[in-house]
Design brief:
- The chain has about 170 residues and is mainly α.
- Helix content is about 95%, strand content about 0%.
- It contains 3 helices and no strands.
- The longest helix is centred in the middle third of the chain and has 134 residues.
- The mean pLDDT is about 85.
Amino acid sequence: MSIQEVIGAIEDGLMSIFASWPIIIVQLLATFFLFLIIRAFLWRPITEFLAKRQEALSKELFEAKQLKEAANKLKTDTINEVEAIKTDILSIKEQTINFANEQKDLIIEEANKEAKKRLLLAEEEIKQEIVHNSDLIKEKIKEVAILGAEVIIKSEVNEKKYDSVLDDIISKNL
């Protein structure tokens, strides 16, 4: 089928509609009366229903826009709060690290002071022990010398015997 044939069939169909004018007039009158009946009895309820429906849809659309705006604002506020919290956390972390480092330095400083103090005390005790022990040694030497002198005096003055007696005294008392 060609385009010309299709166009011809459409023209024939349209012409056949207008071939019977009484049917067309009856159809137009029936449509007009149907329109009047709908207009008289159903128009107001239909338009009220459509107006209410339009109003409800508009209200829902408005509420949806408000909810979307509120949600976007809440999202933005939440993101800002999260960022502020992150900043606070980093600040607290930095402060904590600084405080910990200060405390560490103080502890080390105190430990060093305590170690120096203990070293000085130990050195002082060692000096006192040295003085005390040297005093004891001096006393022992004096005792040995006195004992040696007593023995020498009691025995005859013989150099070999004198040396051997002193060696015995020293080995016994030291």
